[in-house]
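To the wet lab folks,

You asked to see what we're planning to order before we commit. Fair enough. Below is the target structure as tokens, and below that is the sequence we designed to fit it. If anything looks off to you, flag it before the synthesis order goes out.
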């Protein structure tokens, strides 16, 4: 496993074969995938127009890693601020407040149903919500959905509280077929969450 910056450099390296650059992008999305790996991957493919035949648009890989890197650059400083505060709390023998932990809370259980905006816009809303304590869905700025899946954008803030695992029983085979098509960039039409 390499680091995100090392993998991102490989995505941008025009000397590397396209297939390897795609795998490096996969590595980046595994390292930082705000919607979970599969939904983040689908987002990157659709939003940046990564074609089935990579030769048709090699630069789409760069657009995708730029979008992901921009969102990560917004998010990482939040973790650093928290880590600093936690160290001060520890030194003062104060118990850190778990509510202070920055949490993305953007997991999308259905890979094809996720916010459509640029990732940095959504991460910006997560940060705003965390800072102000305001209650809204960070995925779409709609009403806050504390339990279950947001019907507008597909975000599930607390997957541990999802009553039913995704995909639901009986749809697993179908979900795997659809994932294969997403991975190969033969995109089937989007589906709403079950
Ligand atoms: Zn939403």
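Sequence we intend to order:
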């Amino acid at each position: 496993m390499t680091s995100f910056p090392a993998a991102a450099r490989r995505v941008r390296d025009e000397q590397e074969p396209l297939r390897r650059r795609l795998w490096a992008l996969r590595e980046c999305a595994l390292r930082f995938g705000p919607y979970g790996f599969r939904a983040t991957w689908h987002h990157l493919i659709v939003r940046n127009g990564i074609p089935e035949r990579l030769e048709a648009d090699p630069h789409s890989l760069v657009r995708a890693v730029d979008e992901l890197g921009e969102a990560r650059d917004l998010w990482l400083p939040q973790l650093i601020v928290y880590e600093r505060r936690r160290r001060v709390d520890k030194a003062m023998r104060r118990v850190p407040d778990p509510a202070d932990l920055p949490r993305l809370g953007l997991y999308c259980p259905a890979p094809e149903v996720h916010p459509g905006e640029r990732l940095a816009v959504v991460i910006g809303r997560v940060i705003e919500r965390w800072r102000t304590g305001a209650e809204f869905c960070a995925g779409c700025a709609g009403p806050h959905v504390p339990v279950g899946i947001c019907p507008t954008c597909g975000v599930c803030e607390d997957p541990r509280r999802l009553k039913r695992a995704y995909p639901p029983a009986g749809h697993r085979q179908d979900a795997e077929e659809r994932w294969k098509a997403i991975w190969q960039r033969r995109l089937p039409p989007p589906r709403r969450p079950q």
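Structural context that might help your review: Residues 59-91 form the longest helix (33 residues). Residues 53 and 185 are 9 Å apart (CA to CA).

Thanks,
Computational group
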